[in-house]
Amino acid sequence: GLPLSITPRQEVQLEQVYSRGLGPYFVAGTDHQAVVRGRSPRHRGVLMGRVTRVLAGRVWLVPEANAADAPLKPGDGIVFDAADWRSPEEPEEGGRVYHVTPQRSGALELTFGNGAINFARIRPGDLLWRSHDPELDKAVRLYTEAAAPVHRQPVTVHVTAVEGAPLVTVWSLAGHPDVTTTLWSDEPLGQATQRAVDVAYLREQLGRLGGTPYELADLTAEVSGRPFAPSSLLNHLRRQAVAQLQAQQEARTITVNEPLAVLAEVMGKRREGDKEWGSEFRPSPLAPRPSTITNLQSPVSQSPSLHLLVRTPEQLDAALAVWPASITLDYLELYGLRTSVERVQEAGIAVRVASPRVLKPNEQRIVNFLLRLGCPVLVRSAGLLHALREAPDAPELIGDFSLNAANELTARTFLALGLARLTPTHDLNAAQVSDLARRLG
Question: Is 267 part of any domain?
């Protein structure tokens, strides 16, 4: 991977502000079944160590390796994490550290203000997180509560100074040319008796943008004759320009289209003619042939049936014992998947295989492997749907909820691309799922 551009201390500071895991990976790794630690539904801060002893009015802590980069200190806010034996939804113990006393063993003894902690609710093995660092707060306050803007936007200025005519200044944001304002003097410029207007003088006066969110990037000028412009006039025009640029940026409108209204309009246009509708959403000629598995094609029954998804061979053993209507195999590794498919088929139970959600470069072999399994595939991405439907002997393709089909337009589009069935997005409630099914017929 690329070398880190920050120091270990800066990394701890970033994690203190907000983090769900820092590293050259997503959260806690690439294993989608163990990607998130489920200890808490909220931001914790920095893990500082684990409690080893609980004494009267104090605790002992074995510090984490990063403690040397940003050690615990008096005034830090902490919280005890007891998720190993108590629900994280229950009130937690925490407060400000009063004293930190290093021990010969390397442990730290922490004391707190009188009555701040109920030590009866803390056990050895609990984690301790620093949830607030006053020193870090003080450091970032220079940015969050700065007297002057931390980031300045470059401004270009063009000046037209003609003796006997009003002074004209055009101000524009370099990054947003549409944000521009033109200002001119109320009176025409007189003739200079000493210093006439020139580029250096204009840059000096109009470039005084300290304390504003702007900085002068470039200034051009057209000067005719020997015009004179007092500094008071240029200061006045500069202040007006800053105010007008800010007003334009604050007043910029964002157009938000009501999604349901847009969907209704699109669907209305689709329905203008049955011929147009039918041709657009006619199933693809590449759509797979109907499945030969009886369980998947049986008429709709009024009685409920059990369909199971398993992730390990051990779970498959238990699933086969209860004889469900179908089994979906969602294995993290491809190894052993073919054997599991054959076991389900031999049991006479309908089987399908869940595809990966993401197909990375150089993983085309996964598509070929899925095709050779000889069973329906649960498709979880549009890219994989495209790859599978182009196969000469494509299996039955079933759309997963991750395709995010939330309305009739999206659902019909996916079905037209060759899906035999489609699972709506999890965002829909029962009534919305029923309405979508009715619209699709």
Answer: no
